[in-house]
Specification:
Length: 521
């Protein structure tokens, strides 16, 4: 396989344009049922999950739960990180962890972020063998066009079929590129589709940003955020991926969750919300499949809903829905009536509460686009989960006891050491690249809401970092990837620190016998 990037670099824009022109219409663009229930939910949740009680080996946060104070950022203290009932046992920093990575068996696949991933010595998705979590080994690099173009949040695994898929998204949204790998030998993936989706002469008619598998692994769903085109790619024959349904459910769509039978999709709305869609016709492979829109709920407490993790308690279905921006935390939604989903709980950290938005602005200033927000979560099993682990931008990896879904409490966290001053080394880190911007602008909608409610104190929102309007530092890390469960360990990646193997204290977590890490797609 050629390692030169020049042919890809010359043709990437042509490929994207060609794919956009090839977008299917007609029978593949089934219209959602207009009778679906629509509801908007206003208001901001003002209760945080109970704090973790840290053991004697902890190096705890000094103030509000989840906060990295301005003084710690400016003094360099954040370079030591914070930990409570969880510690690092190994890692592989490379040149950064991209946005979203994924694991299978004893391997991890580190996502790429364009264009910085092209600047390092190993260009493409890094394959790591984690047989020994204390000493990961780099075994291969995947450098097909989709891998080089930036995998954003599209890199996903289906364990049942032992497939790895990634789609190319150079700048927020991409088009045309998708590669499928056999990971039976997880340390040495084998490309299955050298033609459609991989060959630059054979682009697939999709847009890409986020992706996910149906439970049976026969369908890979790809979504773009601008526009919010959602595509169902048939992988019955992985060598010949084909688009079998496509539509624009809304202006900007994000990630997915699926019911266990694959007939219901829980689609994240980037503007803060959830769409419930009956996709059984696609699952059955009906000719000209029609997708029904069952419900659409939106909320003002957080936005850029990232993905949805389906679980059940006592046989009743719920989803955990994460909000990537706006301090919305993680919503627990009762979806037992697919036509009438209901938010029944919200997981937040203290730094996300409306009363603390001013403090969050003061500490996050100069750290770039994001403040303190959930991104990806994974439950330790889909049925009656006992714990939920979430990546939390600038707050690290947070672990919650969710045995009682209505009395959720935090049990552990690990906020990795900031890599301040190492920007130029972290060419595959979106945080390092985005640090040309200083303020946490993605928090703006919630800041406005708290101002209107009289909860925002401008004197608390300003401080020694407030003038950092450009070329901000990386005084925290951005943790985006789902922390995946491996017994008492969590495997994840953060933008600056790369891959991390974390160990939970046995005093706070006992893995269930049927542990099965689940992130929804």
């Amino acid at each position: 396989m050629k390692s030169s990037l020049h042919p890809w670099a010359r043709r990437s824009l042509v490929t994207a344009a060609a794919a956009a022109l090839l977008l299917p219409t007609g029978t593949l663009a089934a219209q959602p049922n207009a009778s679906g229930h629509v509801e908007e939910i206003a208001g901001l949740t003002d209760i945080a999950a109970a704090r973790a009680e840290c053991g004697p080996e902890a190096s705890p946060e000094p103030g509000l739960q989840g906060d990295v104070p301005a003084d710690d950022r400016n003094s360099g203290r954040s370079g030591q990180g914070y930990r409570c009932n969880m510690h690092r046992i190994g890692g592989y920093s490379g040149r950064g962890g991209g946005i979203s990575s994924v694991s299978f068996e004893n391997c991890v696949y580190v996502g790429t972020f364009f264009p910085g991933n092209l600047l390092g010595p190993e260009q493409g998705v890094q394959v790591l063998d984690i047989s020994d979590p204390t000493a990961p080994v780099h075994t291969a690099t995947l450098n097909e066009p989709a891998m080089l173009a930036g995998t954003w949040e599209s890199l996903k695994v289906n364990a049942e079929r032992k497939l790895l898929v990634g789609a190319g998204a150079p700048v927020l949204t991409g088009a045309g590129l998708l590669s499928v790998y056999d990971i039976s030998d997880c340390a040495h993936p084998r490309l299955l589709n050298p033609g459609p989706g991989t060959s630059l002469n054979m682009p697939l008619p999709i847009t890409a940003h986020e992706g996910g598998f149906s439970p049976d692994g026969n369908t890979y769903w790809s979504s773009g955020v601008a526009p919010g085109l959602v595509s169902a790619v048939d992988l019955t024959d992985p060598a010949d991926p084909r688009v079998i349904w496509q539509n624009l459910p809304g202006l900007s769509m994000h990630g997915f969750g699926f019911s266990p039978d694959g007939n219901t999709m829980y689609l994240a709305n980037n503007f803060g919300g959830l769409m419930v869609m009956d996709i059984s016709a696609v699952q059955r492979r009906d000719p000209n499949p029609q997708v029904r829109h069952l419900a659409h709920i939106t909320w003002t407490d957080g936005w850029a809903t990232q993905h949805n993790v389906p679980v059940s308690y006592d046989g009743k279905p719920y989803i955990f829905a994460t909000n990537e921006a706006g301090s919305g935390g993680v919503k627990l939604i009762d979806v037992s009536n697919g036509a009438d989903p209901r938010i029944v709980n919200t997981i937040k950290l203290e730094i996300d509460l409306p009363e603390n938005e001013d403090v969050a602005m003061a500490s996050a200033a100069g750290g770039s686009l994001f403040g303190y927000d959930a991104h990806y979560c994974a439950a330790d099993r889909p049925t009656d989960p006992t714990a939920l682990a979430c990546s939390w931008t600038s707050s690290g990896i947070r672990v919650f006891d969710v045995r009682d879904p209505f009395a959720i409490r935090e049990i552990a966290y690990y906020n990795p050491p900031a890599r301040t001053g190492h920007n130029t080394e972290l060419t595959n880190s979106p945080h390092a690249l985005a640090s040309i911007i200083g303020p946490p602008v993605l928090a703006a909608p919630t800041v406005v809401q708290t101002m209107l409610q009289g909860q925002f104190d401008m004197s608390q929102a300003t401080g020694p970092r407030s003038g950092m309007l450009a070329f901000g530092d990386i005084s925290t890390d951005w943790c985006f990837s789902a922390p995946e469960w491996r017994g008492n360990q969590l495997w994840t990646t953060c933008a600056d620190n790369g891959f991390l193997a974390l160990q939970l204290d046995s005093s706070v977590y006992t893995p269930p016998a049927d542990q099965r890490s689940t992130m929804g797609s």
